[in-house]
Specification:
The protein has about 700 residues and is α/β, with parallel strands linked by helices. It is built from 15 helices and 32 strands. The strands form nine sheets. It has an eight-stranded parallel barrel with strand order 14-15-18-21-22-23-24-25. A hairpin with a 4-residue loop joins strand 19 and strand 20.
Length: about 700
């Protein structure tokens, strides 16, 4: 493979970065301030151990400021390449150039192959692929579902269909996920949140399968590249086409795509880790360093920390987000360990992080959902205060939503029966105004969840007192120790009907609480059918049945699936449980009922003192609007977490309303939920007895 002498066409410039396809060749551009020489390595085949051609970039003709750029006439999409850079190796000053290292392009749009066995210490990483972004979108547009109306379903692309029980044609792939879209539609979720699909290593740097494989994918290797391991075809670049096909199919089903993105670290690790890309191009720019540059600041818990607020790195992240939105039609992002993006180059948390403000203010991302995991591995915890700079535009208002870790913990603690949690529950189910109202945010900025990929599944939350991560090979030291879980008598699976009854009731309590709370609910895939990880609360390396979705559970627990479907359907048509403004306790109109009222079990106003384990919440139906003309419903919710039965009275201020039973988690299916809202009326006696750990919800149509 020989090419004409590298040139730069008259119409081309040194930007944008990466491999850019033109009609008569490909332009390659890469940033390196300290490199003394740059080379482009060309390969014929994905399994080639060495390049078939090496193209030297002449600094006189191919360096523009700190950008190295060369045009390769006749090159076409599908070409395989690496960069290679000479420069100083001076760790005490942060330089780690290695003139023999084959370097992944930071802007590579796809990788191909895998690590080949190292020879003479030279690591041979996956090869970059020149990509033509053309794709037949068939008129696809973003669904643009308002955040307040969103219901998120978090899943792992591979794990969702990898099990033989999925019975799909292409298990564990983007195309396999397409085959399960009818199931997602039957649930009624409006968005899938995909665990990382950025490229990450499959094999280690020696070309070997590690003893604990990277299953979750929180170890990025190329931010612009979809993960090749989820593609059906092994053709270089096929993952680009297949991922776009997935997004298009989800959009056709009315389902949005949110990506879990990792901009806090890379797979290059600390000072002992390999040089694969960023280290060998400009280590001092791409990473936060300490001790003059020899060591890496580690706010991610993964060995290094990306220097997100350096202008060069900030620009890369910014262009990456735009690329995924406009080239892949992605609808939103959940930022892993996002508090790291609030740190300056020295690791200090700053009040106005430039990157976060740039993302929020970017006009081309204005329709994109942006969600922060508002903490990091070094102690920063910013739930309620993430990106809390002032917003001069009162019409637009704050953009950043947050995973509400406080919601998770407080709801778990209440249903476990912990003391002093009733007031916390009330605050969480009404939108967490204590966290979000002071900064001018709305209830929908709270992404409510009880479980996520990181921790117990919902089944395991009610089946285990302790984590059981022995299979991870770290002597059960990994994973969170404080789970606020309970096994209700036996650790793990049991055949005791009494224990199973409590567990099943608690699962429904959690689902009902989550889906009837103000804010945006997120459900972990499989919680609707009791998926278990056998007590493992950190299954990051379990690419096996521990993590995979067992599709036999959908049939086995069809009653629970129906329960979840009915709650989701109610939420989607009922604006009373997804209000855009915080509740006030005041009437919306003269002489009307307050928008929210809190009662004790005896029907009197709640006094919020004593050892309380029960709560009654009234939500007043919201008035009709042009987009939701109604009529909507009033809700009366009874939360009873005590270990003894309790008597609950119908509060006098709402006794005149035509209440019908909607949810009763203490009842056996199908009487645990009435999807048509045609359940029995409230008992004529004006009171009812609730068994331990139960939830009841009545609804009344607003006829005013």
């Amino acid at each position: 493979m020989m090419h004409a002498r590298p040139t730069r066409p008259e119409f081309s410039y040194s930007l944008p970065f990466g491999a850019i396809v033109h009609h008569n060749g490909v332009q390659f551009s890469v940033f390196s301030r300290s490199a003394t020489a740059m080379r482009l390595l060309i390969y014929e085949d994905v399994n080639d151990p060495d390049p078939v051609e090496v193209i030297d970039m002449d600094p006189k003709d191919h360096r523009f400021g700190d950008v190295w750029s060369v045009f390769l006439p006749g090159a076409k999409p599908g070409l395989l390449y690496h960069f290679q850079a000479d420069g100083p190796y001076d760790p005490d000053r942060g330089h780690r150039f290695d003139g023999k290292a084959r370097l992944i392009d930071p802007y590579a749009k796809a990788l191909a192959g895998d690590f080949l066995p190292a020879v003479d210490g030279i690591i041979r990483p996956p090869k970059c692929v020149v990509i033509d972004d053309a794709f037949d979108w068939q008129g696809d547009v973003h669904p643009r579902i308002p955040l307040s109306e969103t219901i998120i379903y978090e899943l792992h692309v591979k794990g969702f269909t990898r099990s033989p029980t999925s019975k799909v044609r292409f298990p564990g792939t983007y195309l396999g996920l397409i085959e399960k879209i009818p199931y997602l539609q039957s649930l009624g979720v409006t968005a899938v949140e995909l665990m990382p699909v950025f490229e990450f290593p499959i094999r280690d740097c020696l070309g070997q399968m590690p003893p604990r494989p990277n299953y979750w994918g929180y170890d990025p290797m190329a931010f612009f590249s979809p993960h090749r391991g989820y593609a059906v075809s092994d053709e270089p670049g096929a993952q680009v086409r297949e991922f776009k096909t997935l997004v298009r199919a989800l959009h056709q089903a009315g389902i949005e795509v949110i990506l879990d993105v990792v901009f806090n670290h890379t797979c290059e690790g600390n000072e002992l880790g390999p040089t694969l890309s960023f280290k060998g191009l400009e280590n001092r720019v791409y990473y936060m360093l300490s001790n003059g540059g020899r060591y890496y600041r580690n706010y991610s818990g993964c060995g290094n920390t990306l220097n997100g607020n350096h202008p060069i790195v900030r620009e890369m992240i910014f262009h990456c987000l735009r690329y995924w939105v406009h080239n892949y039609h992605v609808d939103g992002f959940r930022f892993d360990l996002a508090s790291i993006l609030s740190r300056d180059r020295n690791g200090n948390l700053v009040p106005n992080p430039p990157l976060l403000e740039a993302i929020a203010e970017d006009p081309l991302l204005a329709d994109t959902k942006i969600i922060a995991e508002a903490w990091d591995a070094a102690g920063a915890y910013q739930v309620g205060t993430f990106a809390s700079f002032r917003w001069p535009d009162a019409i637009v208002g704050p953009r950043w939503a947050e995973w509400n870790g406080r919601y998770r913990d407080d709801v778990r603690r209440f249903w476990r029966g912990d003391p002093d949690t009733v007031g916390l529950l009330a605050t969480r189910i009404s939108g967490s105004s204590d966290l979000y109202q002071p900064g001018g945010r709305r209830p929908y900025h709270s992404i409510n969840f009880v479980t996520s990929h990181d921790g117990f599944t919902l089944n395991d939350l009610v089946s285990y007192n302790q984590k059981h991560n022995e299979a991870n090979g770290e002597d059960n030291r990994d994973g969170e120790n404080n789970n606020y879980s309970c096994n209700y008598g036996v650790e793990g699976p049991t055949r005791k009907p009494s224990i199973e009854a409590v567990r099943y009731r608690q699962i429904r309590n959690f689902l009902a609480t989550l889906l009837l709370s103000q804010g945006v609910p997120m459900i972990l895939a499989g919680d609707e059918c009791r998926r278990t990880q056998k007590g493992n609360n950190n299954a990051y390396c379990q690419d096996n049945e521990i993590s995979w979705f067992d599709w036999t559970l959908v049939k086995k627990h069809q009653a629970l699936v129906r329960f979840t479907q009915a709650l989701i359907a109610f939420r989607r048509r009922e604006p009373t449980v997804r209000q855009k403004n915080f509740l006030t306790g005041l009437p919306r109109k003269p002489g009307g009922l307050p928008d929210v009222m809190w009662f004790a079990p005896d029907g009197r106003p709640m006094e919020w003192r004593g050892d309380l384990h029960s709560l009654v919440c009234f939500l007043c139906a919201v008035p009709p609007t042009p987009t939701e003309p109604g009529p909507s419903h009033h809700l009366l919710m009874f939360f009873h977490a005590a270990t003894e039965s309790g008597t609950f009275f119908l509060p006098a201020p709402v006794a005149h309303l035509p209440w019908r039973l909607f949810v009763n988690t203490a009842a056996n299916p199908p009487n645990d939920i009435y999807p048509e809202l045609d359940g029995p009326p409230f008992p004529q006696e004006g009171y009812m007895h609730l068994p331990p750990r139960s939830f009841v919800c009545y609804v009344a149509k607003d006829l005013s």
